[in-house]
Amino acid sequence: MSDTPSSGAPTPDAPSADAPSGPPVRELRLVVTAADYDEALRFYRDVLGLPERGAFSSPGGRVTILDAGRATLELTDPNHAEFIDEVEVGRRVAGHVRVAFQVDDSTAATARLAAAGAEVLAEPTRTPWNSLNSRLQAPGALQLTLFTELGEPDEADEGEKGA
User: Fold this and answer.
1) Taking the CA of residue 122 as centre, how many other CA atoms within 13 Å lie in the half-sphere pointing to its CB?
2) In the chain, helix, strand, coil percent, each to 5?
3) What is the largest CA-CA distance in the chain?
């Protein structure tokens, strides 16, 4: 079968002849300008545990690239962002950018980051999408969500969630 409908126009999923063979984007890099660079570096590298991929300097400036694993870009409209804040924190608190890190144990990671100076906005909370999420205000003026995927919900839980 062909990806071309009877009208002759290609379907949206069909690659064009000049499309690159690999993924069009190879890495998402979130660049944060931190007024207290040393504190932000200590927090994200040494406390959160993001491995250093590279460090560079310019006259009077520094940058460190930390490996944060696989990246995704999550786009949401204002109504759904408000819903997420309500679930995770109980009120609207995030700006238009929030950084989420998947961790093995969001309870332990929240405690570790709080001990290192992050402000806990909400302790880990089980979400309707079955993850354990906490919210923190962190160095670099970033709001963080730490989340742990809990796996498939129990069948008993399914009835409680509703539609």
Assistant:
1) 24
2) 25, 25, 50
3) 63
Question: Would you call 46 helix, strand, or coil by DSSP?
Answer: helix
Token pair belonging to 32 = 């944060």
The pair of three-digit structure tokens given for residue 153, joined into one six-digit string: 């919900």
Q: Give CA–CA dist 92/94, Å, rounded.
A: 6
* Beta-sheet strand order (sheet of 99-102): 99-102, 142-149, 131-138, 119-126
| Identity at 42, one-letter amino acid code | R
For the record, the structure tokens of 112 come out as: 């570790």
Q: What does the block give as tokens for 47?
A: 């406390």
Instruction: For residues 123 and 133, give the distance between their C-alpha atoms in angstroms, rounded to a whole number.
Output: 8
Tens-place pLDDT, residues 112-144:
999 999 999 999 999 999 999 999 999 999 999
Q: Count the neighbouring beta carbons within 10 Å of the beta carbon of residue 84.
A: 20
| Distance (Å) of CA 18 to CA 14, 15, 22, 59, 61 | 12, 8, 12, 41, 40
Predicted confidence (pLDDT) per residue in 26-64, tens digit = 888 999 999 999 999 999 999 999 999 999 999 999 999
| Under 8 Å between Cβ of 82 and 92 | yes
